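Quick one: structure for this chain?
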Amino acid sequence: MAAELLSQFVVLVLAVALGFELISRVPSLLHTPLMSATNAIHGIVVVGALVVVLTARETLTMVLGLVAVFFGTVNVVGGFIVTNRMLEMFRGGGRGG
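Got it. Here's what it folds into:
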């Protein structure tokens, strides 16, 4: 049990380090399109977390699943807000030019 938990923790730490390294190397011009593309991934996270919550037999699993649903939903909504702001920059505002 402890070895499995330790290996899962190592995977988590490596995923965080790799994700940070990859995102820090993305040019700032691509951050917003990258965020809008990851909305689909966050949507899958929300669906997966809902499945976990609906099939949970233990309280801890249900609580962690609900936390995942909450944070995944926040990511999806935030991503759509940022994407909307980006698209607003490209719409003509009737300015001369």
